[in-house]
Amino acid sequence: MNKKEANEIKKLFTPANCAISRICGCYVDGEKNKKTELKEAFLSLPEEEAFKYFAIFRSALSGTVGKNMVNMEFPLKAEEEGGTQNFLLKLRDSQLKDDALTEEFYDRIIANYDYGENYYIILIHCAYDIPARSADGLEMEDASDFVYEFIQCVICPVKLSKAGLCYNSEADTIENSIRGWLVEAPDTGFLFPAFTDRNTDIHGLLYYSKNPEQMPEQLIGQVLGCERPMSAKSQNSG
C-alpha cells in the first residue's frame, strides 16, 4: 500500500463516508485481565463517541509509509489452515459477529503484547464499495465493481488524566477536577487485508506503529505471523 491508498481508506472514517459496520473492543489492565468489552453496530454509537473513534482509526493510517506504516507479507505457512493469516481471514469473514473468534483474537493479543499498563484493543469491520476511476483519475460514483472488506485493529494506551483544577458551570466554582482514565491515540495497529492497487490483497497487511523504533516483535510474529522488518533508522545505520 502507498500513501494515496492509505488516504483513500482514511476517508472512510468520517461521518459522510463511514464504511464501518461493526465495532468490538476489549479494555485490558496492567495484569492482562479483561476488564470490560464492547460489541455493537458502529452506527448505533452516540455521535460524539463515533467522532472520537474516527480520529483514532485515522491516526493509525497516518505518518510515513516505510516508517510508521509498514507493508508486511505473510509467509506461505501463515495462509494454511490454522495459520495466522487464515485466522485473520476467518475473523474478517465473520464480520466480528462470532464471539468465540473475537475472544480468541483478544487472547492472542493479550498473550503476546508486552505492555505492562492498561490498554484498549479496538477492532472494526468495514465494507468499501471501491469507486471505479476514469482514465483521468476521476472517481465514478456509480461504477463500483469490487467491494474491499477489511478489519482494522488498534491498540491504545489508557492513562489516568492529570490532576488539576476545573470550572464547574453548575455550581459556578473552580474546584478540583475528577481524574479519569483516558483512551489515547494508538501505539500500534494493523489493516487487513492490504488495499494494494486499490483492491483486496489477502497476502499482505499494513502495520502501523506510532514509534517505528519500538515495534512489538512478539505481537507481529505470533499474532500476525509476519516478520518484523528492520526500521528505517536501523537500515540506515547498517
Order of helices and strands: HEEHEHHEEEEEEEEEHH
User: Any idea what the radius of gyration is?
Assistant: 19 Å
Proportion of strand residues: 35-45%
Structural class: alpha+beta
Poorly predicted residue ranges: none
Number of strands: 12
Principal-axes shape call = globular
* Biggest beta sheet attributes: 8 strands, antiparallel
Oligomeric category: single chain
Q: What is the helical fraction, as a range of percent?
A: 10-25%
Mean pLDDT across the residues is 91
**What is the number of helical segments per DSSP (H or I, 4+ residues)?**
6
Number of domains: 1
Distance between the termini: 25 Å
Structure description:
The chain contains 6 helices and 12 strands. The longest helix has 14 residues, at 99-112. The protein has helices spanning 3-10, 47-59, 84-93, 99-112, 217-224, 232-237, and strands at residues 20-28, 34-41, 69-73, 119-133, 139-160, 165-168, 173-176, 181-183, 188-192, 194-196, 199-201, 204-209. The strands form 3 sheets. Strands 1, 2, 3, 4, 5, 8, 9 and 12 form an 8-stranded antiparallel sheet that branches. The protein is of the alpha+beta class and 238 residues long. It has one domain (3-237).
How would you summarize this macromolecular structure in one to three sentences?
Helices cover 25% and strands 37% of the residues.
Topology, pairings included?
Blueprint: H1 3-10, E1 20-28, E2 34-41, H2 47-59, E3 69-73, H3 84-93, H4 99-112, E4 119-133, E5 139-160, E6 165-168, E7 173-176, E8 181-183, E9 188-192, E10 194-196, E11 199-201, E12 204-209, H5 217-224, H6 232-237
Antiparallel strand pairs: 1-2, 1-4, 3-12, 4-5, 5-8, 5-9, 6-7, 9-12, 10-11
Helix pairs in contact: 4-5
